[in-house]
Design a protein that fits this description.
Helix content is 17%, strand content 35%. By secondary structure, it is α+β, with helices and mostly antiparallel strands. It has one domain (1-28, 46-81). The chain is globular. The mean pLDDT is 87.
Length: 81
């Protein structure tokens, strides 16, 4: 059974997915997928993207990039300031 977000701010951020996808910018260098994480095995690398949402604060979005260069939103987390 999956669990709900441990932080309600992350749930609120997900409701703004369209805005985050449109305006988030890449933060740092692409990272290799974590070893031992089955959900990340399909990706050749991961991108960390940030966006500042009004009323929520900084939001981090992880995007997986497949070998075909297809990008898939992996997770969204509100970062406490």
């Amino acid at each position: 059974m999956r669990h709900a977000s441990k932080n309600y701010s992350s749930t609120l951020a997900l409701l703004q997915l369209d805005t985050i996808l449109r305006y988030a910018v890449v933060y740092g260098k692409p990272k290799p997928p974590k070893k031992g994480v089955a959900n990340q095995k399909i990706f050749s690398y991961m991108l960390e993207m940030h966006y500042e949402l009004i009323g929520i604060g900084l939001v981090k979005m992880m995007v997986g990039v497949k070998r075909t260069r297809e990008k898939i939103q992996y997770c969204i987390t509100a970062i406490e300031a």
